[in-house]
Amino acid sequence: MTNKRSYKHTNNALVLTGGGARAAYQVGVLSAIAQFIPRNHGCPFPIISGTSAGAINTTALACYASCFQLGVKKLEWVWNNLSTNRIYHSDPYRVFSHIAKGVFGSFQADYANRPARSLLNNAPLRELLNEVIDFRRIDNNILKGYLSAVAVTASSYTSGDSISFYQSEDHIKPWFRANRRGEPSQFNSEHLMASAAIPLVFPSINIKRQHFGDGSVHQLSPLSPAVHLGAERIFIVGVEQPKEPIHPNENNPHPPTTSSIAGHLLDSIFSDTLQSDIERAERINKTIALSPDGPQKNELGLKKIDTLLINPSHDFNSMAVKYFDELPLSIKILLRSVGITNDSESSLVSYLLFDKKYCKQLIKLGYEDAMEKETIIRDFLDL
């Protein structure tokens, strides 16, 4: 028998950020947390929220909320056996024909049914999601009380809003804020494809006549979905890492290339808003502490939110360059055409390197980082 919501705090939330292949790091952190929990125990996070590749990990966990260790093991198995061609087409014919179709498609008339343009075609990811995720289990776990809510965030290119699709208990209502809102949904692979559609790299996804892309774009408040779903303490796995120079002995570095600048832009999309949102939560907590009504109730309608952030201790970029040669030849040629080589400073490789050797290293790093903070994590989650 699995245990149903037997933790002291039933408003624990898990927030997983984006980052393409970097999301393997999250699995390592979750694997460590699974060591702190009895076997066959339910998920210690009744509320789960994810963005981009983090949305895929959160949805997989939601499907196995009745047994946290089993859900984590399944995630580990997928990431440990991943290959590039399970995420996007990587053979020469389909890589370059996809680019050619996009170029020729730009000459079509406005009334024509144009396909979404992108650098790569991630149709294999859709097949993988439908193969390994049983979306019907989410409702089951909600009905049985193992899960309160799960949310995935995508960015609407049509409206410019950040949309958090969520599946939850009946009492949770939609929310509307400036440029962001929560929309109740019945999850399927298209929601995850939309949330994980890295700008320019993967094609946008059409859901209910709106075009969606990576949820990290326009996401001004990454903690917002979890808070609206009822979270009071939020455990976050981030992607902000120390900068480790790929060429430590370089005394006269060259100006950044176009590919390096593109990598920096991606880094800012995936990490910059998270830290400011955590700081905002801390300021709100201080404001509540000064309220005469105390932390439980105040006239501003605010509530205290505790957060714990785990960030990687090593630079993903310096790790990724060691596995550059694991990329298929056609992808290496494509990357070289935009100035990315095996010794490039660009972080694009760390997002696109869906190779099991690289992913295993990220999982190992996540596990070690979390184990180093075992006492802090146990105390925070009351495990």
Task: Describe what you observe in this structure.
This protein has 383 residues and is α/β, with parallel strands linked by helices. It contains 14 helices and ten strands. The chain has helices at 24-35, 53-63, 68-80, 92-105, 123-132, 136-143, 189-195, 224-228, 258-289, 316-320, 329-337, 348-352, 356-372, 374-381, and strands spanning 12-16, 47-51, 149-156, 162-168, 176-177, 180-184, 205-207, 210-213, 233-237, 306-310. Strands 1, 2, 3, 4, 5, 6, 7, 8, 9 and 10 form a ten-stranded mixed β-sheet that branches. The longest helix is centred in the C-terminal third of the chain and has 32 residues, at 258-289. The radius of gyration is 21 Å and the shape is globular. The protein starts with 11 loop residues before the first strand and ends with a helix. The mean pLDDT is 87.
Labels describing this entry:
single chain; 383 residues; alpha/beta; ten-stranded mixed sheet; 14 helices
Number of helices: 14
Number of strands: 10
Low-pLDDT windows of residues: none
- Mean pLDDT across residues: 87
- Summing up helix and strand content along with how strands pair, one would put the structural category as alpha/beta
SSE ordering:
EHEHHHHHEEEEHEEHEHEHHHHH
Shape designation: globular
Sheet of most strands: 10 strands, mixed
N- to C-terminal distance: 19 Å
Binned, the helix content reads: 40-55%
C-alpha Rg (nearest Å)? 21 Å
How much beta, percentage-wise?
Answer: 5-15%
